[in-house]
Predict the 3D structure of the following.
Amino acid sequence: MSSKFASLEAQALKLPPEERAALADHLLASLSTERDIDDAWAAEVEHRIAEIEAGRMALVPAEQAIARAKQALA
């Protein structure tokens, strides 16, 4: 690990959690070569969050979602 990397890491770890999460998201997105797909997924995530917060979409327990997925693959 370079000293520049270590310095950046130390600075990043001083950020509040929400800023570290945003930074991590930006860094991960920078690795993708399929920006249009990433943008579409980000928009879909935001849309789904808005639907849940507005009460127009119900959450499903993880166990139930996994059971449905397994059944669909069988």
